[in-house]
Design a protein that fits this description.
The structure is a single chain. By secondary structure, the chain is of the alpha/beta class. The protein is built from 6 helices and 5 strands, in the order E-H-E-H-E-H-E-H-E-H-H. The chain has a 5-stranded parallel β-sheet with strand order 2-1-3-4-5, sandwiched between helices. Helix 2 packs parallel to helix 3. The longest helix is centred in the N-terminal third of the chain and has 13 residues. It is globular and about 35 Å long.
Length: 125
Amino acid sequence: MVKVLIVDDEVDLAEYIADELRSENFDTDTAYDGVEAVLKALDGIYDVVLLDIRMPKLDGIGALRIIKRVMPNLPIIMFTGQAGRGDMIASTRLGAYTCLLKPVSLNQLVETIHQVVPNEKIQQK
């Protein structure tokens, strides 16, 4: 089963995304700021990270930099409702797979996860 870390300082949104992805047979976990995201991501148990750009303590760009330095092969999908185009471009230059705009549809999110996670991992349910 694909293990997804969802990171957003909007707790209700993070929990909603987690619930929706669980209904699609993903194993999910949440974090609510960049520091917590880094600590959880570096445990090495996730197949993909969904990471908001604008967050307290450590923003998504900073968290992305740290995670990619230590785990360059961990797929990270950024998402944002507030960041400008420059932040979106910076995140992909720093190694994020893509940057999605909120509100993101469940179908778009699932499709994007399927693009970054190996098929054999997705087929293990």
